[in-house]
Design a protein that fits this description.
One of its GO terms (biological process) is antibiotic catabolic process. The chain has 322 residues and is of the alpha/beta class. The protein has 9 helices and 14 strands.
Length: 322
């Protein structure tokens, strides 16, 4: 009887040993990309390859969720890093030389390899260096629309291994990470928000701001989708939001203020345009954002450019009796 019990216990322990890793096996709901199509693709020189003499950090955000940065304010680039027993998930890189440092830092401090990389959108300043982690064996995930500009603009970054359309999930180390894309676009048509439910945190790069005016003339800009995205972020009501730049995380209250500023800016530019004002008159009569002159970074540098970008959007989307 004792022998049978010992055999049963041994079998049970063996079964647990076999089952346990499978229960926490890394997985995702994205679709594979045929990398053979892009093998040997042409890329432009990488300006960040030798840009090693920059400030860099890896600081805990909350509960094994860290924030990596490179560059100094206001030119800081950042992304979140989740450390698990199964490996690390990293959002964006932003610098090829710093990506090599970050890979070593994660290995040294946590004895973890980078398992997943999420590319937030197909802009080189955030994706530079993701190829380092892909070459080391990480799986790179992006929204499907990212592939075309990565290839077409010859960006020296990782070509995604897996892509998704609007929603996807990653399972890593017993944690679920949520990926969200707004189909109407926002800052690019390939943007991904990354939600870490356990930590009540989110990566909302470039679309969200932390007491800062949006960058210049909004650049790769889709106004209706941007507002839809901000509404979605507000609905999630997470505690901490990394915006991909600057020093401090944003809060839901910051995103409400940003949305209200952008909708006010749009409404004013549209109304002044309908009054027949030319550009030289119009920008001088916009008051949106004045209330944040002393509270937000970038009033002197960004606000006039914000007006210009919104004017361009409005002008391209009006159609009156002409």
């Amino acid at each position: 009887m004792q022998t049978f019990q010992n055999m049963t216990l041994a079998a049970t322990l063996a079964a647990i040993t076999l089952i346990a890793p499978a229960a926490f096996a890394a997985s995702d709901t994205a679709e594979p990309v045929d990398q053979s199509i892009y093998e040997g693709r042409e890329t432009l020189p990488d300006p960040s390859e030798g840009n090693c003499d920059v400030e860099k950090s890896l600081v805990e955000f909350k509960d094994n969720l860290y924030r990596h940065t490179n560059g100094s304010f206001p030119a800081t680039h950042s992304g979140l890093v989740l450390i698990t027993d199964e490996g690390a998930l990293v959002v964006d890189a932003g610098n090829t030389c710093v990506a090599k440092w970050l890979q070593e830092e994660i290995k040294t401090r946590f004895d973890a390899d980078i398992k997943y990389v999420v590319q937030t959108h197909a802009h080189w300043d955030h994706l530079a260096g993701t190829q380092v982690w892909q070459d080391a064996g990480a799986t790179v995930i992006a929204q499907r629309n990212a592939i075309e500009p990565i290839i077409g603009e010859k960006l020296p970054v990782a070509t995604p291994d897996r892509v998704f359309d609007n929603e996807a999930e990653i399972e890593l180390g017993g944690e679920t990470i949520l990926l969200h894309h707004e189909p109407a676009g926002n800052h690019s048509n390939s943007m991904v928000q990354v939600v870490f439910p356990k930590q009540s945190a989110m990566q909302c790069t470039d679309v969200c701001q932390s007491k800062t005016f949006p960058y210049m003339d909004f650049l790769d800009f889709y106004y209706p989708g941007w507002i839809k995205t901000l509404d979605w972020v507000i609905e999630q009501d997470v505690d901490l939001i990394d915006v991909g730049h600057y020093n401090d995380p944003a809060t839901t209250e910051d995103i409400v203020a940003l949305r209200d500023y952008m909708t006010d800016l749009h409404a004013q530019v549209l109304e002044l345009s309908r009054q027949g004002m030319n550009w030289d008159q119009l920008w001088r009569n916009v008051t949106a954002g004045n209330e944040y002159r002393d509270e937000w970074f970038g009033y002197e540098y960004m606000r006039r450019a914000n007006i210009e970008g919104m004017f361009r959007w409005v002008d391209n989307h009006r159609r009156g009796v002409w």
